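Morning run. Coffee first, then this:
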Amino acid sequence: MVMEDPDRYAMTQTVTIDIFVPGKLLERHVSRGQVLRVVGYVLLGLGLMVLISALMLVPLIAMGVVHVNLRTGQVEPFSVLILLSASELALIVPPLWYVKKRGLPAASIGIKKISLPSDILYGLGLGLVMFLANVAVSWAVDMIPGVPEPGSGSLSRTLSIWDVAGWALVMFVIVGPAEEVLFRGFLQRRLEMYFFGHRTRYGAMAIAIASLIFAATHLDIIGLPTRFVLGAFLGFAARRRRYSVVAPSVAHGLNNTLVLLFYLLLP
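And here it is:
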């Protein structure tokens, strides 16, 4: 599907600062070398997140405050997972550094709004569709012979309303926005710029590759198909909203929250 240049709208908004800052450059073309550097920035963001998580978790384990089941990956108490989710803020550090070095506006990595009410409504609707797709794809994968039974992972069945509320808060405020800036606003947008002029379906190529990287970085082979499909939904939404990450962030947060609630309601 061919769509208009997502930056064309931004370039016309020269009298406002929420979309485009006059005097700032917009990135128009990306070379192969630049794409590889962008992927390196993505890996750097993930590495920073892991490092910060370890620095937060190891002392808590040493003090006996946190218990980790190495076989299942379950972490107790659940509130620690909520705390560790704050480490995802590290994901946006490399993209912000990237645009600062090049004198680019934050809009070039998706930190912009097109129409906030419609972005939010779009995100809520997409989040519901994503959740249904999540359940369907996960069920299909579970039906494949030889696939291990899904375990409880790191989620506990005995959660308080405050645990659920805290989880939802970090999904909408931290995890969704951070991952969408990194994978959609930063990575996918530059993949699209690289493939533009080289591939007829440059948008689809960018979505597919960004979604594959997004799925692979979760380090879950069984869950890779599901996360790839979810990444494709989010990538499509990012393009539809001219690479504003508001709608994908809302959809991402809602999907993750509904997954937790669905898990808790299972018999």
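The beta strands are 67-68, 75-76. Good start to the day.
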